[in-house]
User: What shape does this take?
Amino acid sequence: MARRRHKKRTQPGAHGGSSNGNLANSSASRGPKSMVIRVGASDIGSSVSQLVKDVRSMMEPGTASRLKERKSNRLRDYTTMAGPLGVSHLLLFSRSSTGNTNLRLALTPRGPTLHFRVEKYALCKDVRKAMRHPKGGGKEYLSPPLLVMNNFISPEADNGSKVSVPRQLETLSTTIFQSLFPPISPQSTALSSIRRVLLLNRELPKPQATGDSIDVSPYVINLRHYAITSKPSSLSTGVRRINAAEKMLKDRASRKRIPNLGKLEDVADYILDPSAAGGGFTSGSESEIETDAEVEVMDVDHKKVVSRKQANTGRRNGGESLNRGTGIQKRAVRLVELGPRMTLRMTKVEEGVCGGKVMWHEYLNKSEDEIREMEKVWETREREKAERKRVQKENVQRKREARGTGEELPAGTQDGVPAHDSDDNHEWDSEALEADE
Assistant: This one.
């Protein structure tokens, strides 16, 4: 009789699967999730479409990397599904009629939304072509990147000049970018799990000389994405090649770099003789590493599980520990750029998800009277919205009562709600949202 097949990846408790499906789902929902969306699908062009794919790979693993957009999709479609899927951030790429590429970073379900203009960008393939030894396609994208933010809070000006961005909005933008990725705990996070770095550097504004003037410098953020590589800094190139020989044997292209020690009597001849096996110490600077790139980490090779027999043998040999030394190793850290690159210029901050009261605008400065008038307009809108919801609730209740008594519903209603009052009939036009930018 044929043996029954068991699933090995999706069955709870199997090798490679979760021990408890509910526990896995709950742990995954706690972390932030994002969706990188092309507004208008293929109408934004091939370059911006490729930029969206690169940003999705940068946001891995907590993003929808295989999201397929349609030209008919509206913002309401994504915000409706954000709740059931546990999506906390929306990154919307679009192109205006003038050819500008825009990015909107929104928090679901209640906002706020940051509007950026992508002034410059470089794709991952362009970054790889410009590098001599590019890196990518490994295990770097299995864990979220380490977020490094610089100059997001501008220092106080000595001359008392006003800046264009208020301090509360700087704090708000800092909080929004920090919430893109799960927080890292230095006590529990393993260093081997941090494989990438996402660098966000804000260009500091330049205050003017006069004290009553307002700085007009833009809010510009430079985005860079790097992979973290490390190697022992206290070893020469020859010794590192010997240590990595086992890994090189698995790769056919790397076998040529394995030193040939067949003609040598001792491995010391290879290390000390420059001409031995085609390599060795050529100068003292070969093994020197910049001191700024050196870090001290715990060597995981020292933490080995030994059997009881090996432990007893070590005690009989004078009580020497099997793990000699402190376990601290000096390693040289190097950053290899993965891409993409982006230069983002903030243009507007508004409440809600791409539709709400404008909290700050780069080009429009309102007086106190205009701000108070705008507050009255928004209060009126909120009252009208609350009234519409009350009427809809009453209509739904009347429909339920009519079903119980067998009466017919009045014409022009849809599930007990008037057709002209239903929020589902209002479609979000993405082009209209971008018109005021």
